Amino acid sequence: MGNKVWNDKKRFIWMLSILLLAAFIVTSGISYQVAHESLSEQIEDNTLPLTSDNIYSEIQQDLLRPIFISSLMAQDTFVRDWTINDEQDPEKLIRYLNEIQQKYNTVTSFFISESSRNYYHSSGVLKKIEDVSSEDAWYFRVRSLPKSEDYEINIDTDTADKNRTVIYVNYKVYDFEGNFIGVTGVGLAVESVKKMIELYQTRYNRKVYFSDRQGNITLRSKGFDGATTLQSTAGLEKLATRILTSPSASFSYRRDNRTIYLNSRLVEEFQWYLMVEQDEVLAEKKLLTTFWLNIGLSLVVTFGILLIANMTLGKYQRKLEMMASTDKLTGAANRQAFEEYFTPALSRSLVESTPMAVLIIDIDHFKQVNDKFGHNIGDLVIQSAANVLKSNLKEADLLCRWGGEEFLVLLPNMNISQAHELADRMRETVAARSIKVNGNDINITISSGVAEYRKTETPEELINRADIALYQAKEQGRNQVVLSY
């Protein structure tokens, strides 16, 4: 029975483990799947647009400042008066441009007069603008802008330093009657702007770059790995038209077997699109980290539950085994326990060629005790007799309450002669003991039948021979031991 209970317990623990782990894994998997499915919507509709708004707000401070400076220069009374008055004393304008450059920390400041076509720079008069020069085409392009457009932004080499690339803000200048009289403006170093973009990328952990209205990538960081145009960027070629015709939009596309989320926003002042991208891999890593943390936590919780369950089951198992194998009244083994104990004891006896004997013991005239003193006292008498019997046994011996007032004792490694001596000693001990109840002395005796196992017989035949010997002891006057040979 013990092995069966132990096997049942192990089976239950394994089933509980599998069910708990399966429940945790399924729950974590469903949570991961739901989170993964909502990731795209969350990024497209919330996270990325919010990041784009934040970057746009910073652009208002960082990149729109040159437009404001150029606007102030174009509206400056000094510049317009100086130009209208035939550009007398160029050093005054040069000093003015130098002060603008120093005050606002720009890399260049300039003014081109429509009348003289002189290119005034903070360092002096650089040259005359010529309509046949490709380097000067920008001036005539700005000059021909419609009245509704006062400026343009372009990226070009610095006229004063050919090794430097500059972002120019070219602003048209009008006299007091609205006549075009020149172009003024300032420039920012492309490297400085790229550092701003890299700062945005680091701060928001997103890829940031700019595209003009034609889809050309105008500004990007050093680590930018895309193409030079939206139309030639893998995955974006089909979306380029939609991006360039929408003031603000959110998209997702596939590139290198990854999902890329993109938010585009037109910066009106620049007429450039602010492009903010997020790679799904980064968000996916967070989800996977959370998933494996949940699995790890599930394992810890499962282990804790199993530990508690094992302790609880062990406690109840021992209690149930005790209840299932022990006689409640005497604490001796019951018949079921005897059957489980007898089989391995018999096997050892056969393998080791050692003797084994059994005693069947009965309390004499027990019915008279019950009739005279009641069942409660009868139970007390049975308990007392069991205690005496147990006190004469070794650890390897087994005392079993066989039924009513009858006991069976299994004696491994004991032949019939040794068993007879033990049975007689038990009989004398019981007879010498007196039980006092309500001022009455109750003396009892026992009768015993003894049998030694024969190799050719069955367990039932062994017990039957001991039982016959007990019956003979009863027939011969009780309080004695009879052997069965």
TrEMBL record:
CDD domains: GGDEF, PDC1_HK_sensor. Its EC number is 2.7.7.65. It holds the Pfam family dCache_1. It is a multi-pass membrane protein. Keywords: Cell membrane, Membrane, Transmembrane, Transmembrane helix. It comes from the Bacteria. Residues 354-485 form the GGDEF domain. This is diguanylate cyclase. It comes from Shewanella electrodiphila.
